[in-house]
Amino acid sequence: MPRFSPLHTATAATFVLSLPLLAQTQRPAPAASTRKASEQSASFVQADDPNNHAPLPDAAVVKQRVLDNLKKTEAEQERYICRIAREEDSTDKNGRVKKGEIKDYDMFYVNGREIDELISKNGKILDAGQQTKEADRVKKEIEKDSDEKHLAKEQADDEKQLDLVLHALRYTNGHRQIVNGRSTLIYDLSGDPSFHPKNVQETFVHNMTGIIQIDETTGELVDLNAHLDHDVKIGGGLLANIHKGFWIHIHQVRRSDGVWIPDLAEGKGDARAALFLHPYFQFKQTTSSCHLTNVTTQTGEGTVAGQAGSNVKIN
Asked: DSSP letters of 262-298?
């Protein structure tokens, strides 16, 4: 399952690259509008706000601020270890689950890169042998994300994804709402007509539509709800075919120290790339708890904090 870091989840590019995740899974577009579903999930409340009548900030400036914050947030999240649950289902074309799996992970960050350590499958804690194997895998991930050359490449890839989202999508029909007591900017997302996609990834992102919510004070992503309202065929369907109804939803919450943490990522859909078939699928990732901590990594032994042989120390 691909990583669900704020940067990758909000980067529409992750959507299709994550078909392996974020970019990550869907449900056929709800009968109600995406705006309605998004507003319900965010617990919208009408309230008086002295800023409600102020001019909206320029949409292009808001968009750039959101993308800049996504990069900054990953570094801030290194202070946290979170327990997450991922539900992944393979479904038939009618949405009936054929095979399902639930996995629990401890999620933490090293040099701004998300690392997930598997704790249990379908409610069953890993046995000693599985824990050793997982510890070895996590150790390799930490070493890889501590390598300067690898890190530079990953950061360069992130910059490309951010640049794609910045130019492929536009923010329109902006307005303010009070969400959980905070002034929130809400925009429709759609393909920018001035952007001309040149490859599969760009074409996919350019065809997404939906709603994005942004915390006005901090410029942080609050909620992203995007979908395809038509089939997308690339190369006449020979290169890729992504079906109508492909859907993804991401939500973040603000913690007491000001750090924003994803608490929900979900989606559903089906797609085909070249000769590789992707079955109908759906996923849901939730964050059940996070612990503020001072984390330092060691590459010599063990695995995540809180377990025997830990290579992540919590002070």
From this structure: EEEEEEEEEEEETTEEEEEEEEEEEEEEEEE--EEE-
At 86, the amino acid letter reads R
CB atoms < 10 A from the CB of 140, how many?
11
Strand partners, 269: 281
DSSP state of 16: H
How do 247-254 and 97-110 pair as beta strands?
unpaired
Reduced to 3 states (helix: H, G, I; strand: E, B; else coil), residue 90 is strand
Q: Are 280 and 270 in contact (CB under 8 A)?
A: yes
Q: What does each C-alpha distance from 259 to 147, 209, 262 come to in angstroms?
A: 26, 27, 10
Instruction: Tell me the whole-structure pTM to 2 decimals.
Output: 0.73
DSSP codes, 102-155? EEEEEEEEETTEEEEEEEEETTEE--HHHHHHHHHHHHHHHHHHH-HHHHHHHH
Residue that has been written with the tokens 């919510």 in this structure: 213
Tokens read off for 93 = 């074309």
pLDDT over 70, % of the chain: 68
Cα gap 218→208, rounded to integer Å: 25
- Using the CB atoms, write b or e for 39-48: b if 16+ within 10 Å: beebebeeee
Spatial distance between the Cα atoms of 302 and 110, rounded to a whole number of angstroms: 15
User: Residue 54 to residues 49, 176, 215, 265: CA-CA distances in angstroms?
Assistant: 10, 10, 15, 32
CA distances (Å), origin 246, targets 28, 188, 207:
6, 17, 11
Q: Which of 73-77, 120-124, 145-149, 166-170 has the highest mean pLDDT?
A: 120-124
Contact of 310 with 304, CB cutoff 8 Å:
yes
Residue 120, judged by CB atoms within 10 A of its CB (0-12, 13-18, 19+), counts as middle
